[in-house]
Design brief:
metal ion binding; mainly alpha; nuclease; about 220 residues; Endonuclease III, domain 1; 12 helices; HhH-GPD_domain
């Protein structure tokens, strides 16, 4: 099977499993989405949504985040991992938005990555979900699934994974691909205890087949 045909098959199967895959970070506008994605680094979307439920009521604009001392903002997000660094990034980001972008989240990817705490992945999420620009953001789930299914090599870095996905997937499907791979990794092909016995893509997953063989051998020895 050619690489593009294999990718199309994978996306078709995952699409059938998760037809409603979408961004699970709660937000009302591009600014809130940017803050939520910044907070989500090394943290679950579920925890971020719990924190932002109150955070987004207290702070609605960049000026709001700058109107309080840094330690107050830290306390508001202290349930989030790395909350001190993230609070600092948020205030610096808000200052830059006011000074350079009229208080609005910029539409261009290159401008987004200038913002403190906003890397390539965050920028991809924002442009695709807030502004409708096709993009593939490679988070831990997308990276894991891509490598397990042989789309990328085990030693590929995040950028290499992104480039390979962009090459194999039609541009108009980039955003959907991002969401589908995340859902597949988050709810099915988990880091720990992936659902290999019921996985429709097991034949494409070397790690999954090895895991199944090890389990079978373990049971055989036990008997």
């Amino acid at each position: 099977m050619k690489a593009k045909d294999k990718m199309a098959y994978i996306l078709r199967v995952i699409g059938e499993m998760f037809p409603n895959a979408h961004c699970e970070l709660n937000h009302r506008n591009p600014f809130e989405l940017t803050i939520a994605v910044l907070l989500s680094a090394q943290c679950t979307d579920e925890t971020v949504n719990k924190v932002t439920a109150d955070l987004f009521k207290k702070y609605e604009t960049p000026a709001d985040y700058l109107s309080v001392p840094l330690d107050e903002l830290e306390q508001d997000i202290r349930r989030i991992g790395l909350y001190r660094n993230k609070a600092s990034h948020i205030q610096k980001l808000c200052r830059m938005l006011l000074d350079e972008f009229g208080g609005e989240i910029p539409h261009r990817h290159e401008d987004l990555t200038k913002l403190p705490g906003v890397g390539r992945k965050t920028a991809n999420v924002v442009v695709s979900n807030a502004f409708g620009v096709p993009a593939i953001a490679v988070d831990t789930h997308v990276e894991r699934v891509s490598k397990r299914l042989g789309i990328a090599k085990v030693d590929d870095n995040v950028l290499e994974v992104e480039k390979k996905l962009m090459k194999l997937v039609p541009r108009e499907l980039w955003t959907d691909t991002h969401h589908r791979l995340i859902f597949f990794g988050r709810y099915h092909c988990k880091a720990q205890n992936p659902q290999c016995p019921v996985c429709p893509l097991l034949d494409l997953c070397k790690e999954g087949r090895q895991r199944m063989k090890m389990n079978a051998d373990r049971k055989a020895k036990a008997n």
